[in-house]
Amino acid sequence: RERQRFVDKNGRCNVQHGNLGGESSRYLSDLFTTLVDLKWRWNLLIFLLTYTVAWLVMASMWWGIAYLRGDLHRAHDNTDSPCVANVYNFPSAFLFFIETEATIGYGHRYITERCPEGIVLFLFQSLLGSIVDAFLIGCMFIKMSQPKKRAETLMFSRAAVISQRDGKLCLMFRVGNLRNSHMVSAQIRCKLIKSRQTPEGEFLPLDQCELDVGFGTGADQLFLVSPLTICHEINSKSPFFCLSQRSLRSEQFEIVVILEGIVETTGMTCQARTSYTEDEVLWGHRFLPVMSLEDGFFRVDYSQFHATFEVPTPPYSVKE
């Protein structure tokens, strides 16, 4: 049976919000963000439907003005001064609206000065068109420029390892950047997700605990130009103080890793996430080196990015 994860390996959070009741109206109060968060197929559908409905409604209003003034029956009478010249049916009214909205202006259809209601409708059409264009086009632009795809070029090792470094037992995993463009002000954080019960008997499902990966020393601030191995020292302040190789088999926890930084090319903040369950933590392993010195530069071999090898490691916990 597959282990139920709080955060998938690709960073997607397995949390669904239900039974919102009256709180669902909050989505409409922030309509712009709601549209940006929708999937692409729904965004494109709303985009097409909004423009199609707006075009048909406005074309119907121009056709209605021509119908009420009787211009449809006198369309080919050159002695009369219609509201809109050469509008004699709905298709011609629709084409006039499109020409006006798109500022094409072929010159065959135009508003005359003897039509105040047409002038008012023209002003209303210009204002409404500007609002709709700004809202929908702005929504599409923000959605296309979101840095979510940039997070896919940030790699995490498939497994975490526990071994000794500088005489201390450490939990380690590897991160890498596949692009040549840098992540400015990159910072990494780790959360331990584990259910526990308080001394008062309160059960806390999915309790979150911070894992120190160098917050006090500044090691959590990354210069991510090459793959780095992130290290969490297991000491008396660590949640893994009592963790041994044997107890690791019976534990049930999840380590959520969050990597944040500013995309150098766009200046937007990007966040990449992954997680490690207890069966993805390898005791007594170390990562293979991936850096090599070539003629005038350093080469990174990403084929060995996830590879580990066994090293002698005491099977006891730090407490023992």
Tally of structural domains? 2
E-strand count? 14
Please tell me how large the radius of gyration is.
Answer: 31 Å
CATH class category of the largest domain: Mainly Beta
- Kindly estimate the percentage of residues that lie in beta strands according to DSSP: 25-35%
- In terms of structural class, how would the helical and strand content be classed? alpha+beta
Under CATH, the homologous superfamily of the largest domain reads G protein-activated inward rectifier potassium channel 1
Helices and strands, in N-to-C order?
HHHHHHEEEEEEEHEEEEEEE
As an assembly, this protein is: single chain
CATH architecture classification of the largest domain: Sandwich
**What composes the largest sheet?**
5 strands, mixed
**CATH-assigned fold name of the largest domain:** Immunoglobulin-like
- Separate helix tally: 7
Report what the structure shows.
The protein is an alpha+beta fold and 320 residues long. It has 2 domains: 23-145, Helix Hairpins (Orthogonal Bundle), CATH 1.10.287.70; 149-310, G protein-activated inward rectifier potassium channel 1 (Immunoglobulin-like, Sandwich). 28% of the residues lie in helices and 27% in strands. Strands 1, 2, 3, 7 and 10 form a 5-stranded mixed sheet that branches. Strands 4, 5, 6, 8 and 9 form a 5-stranded antiparallel sheet that branches. The longest helix is centred in the N-terminal third of the chain and has 30 residues, at 40-69. 20% of the residues are buried.
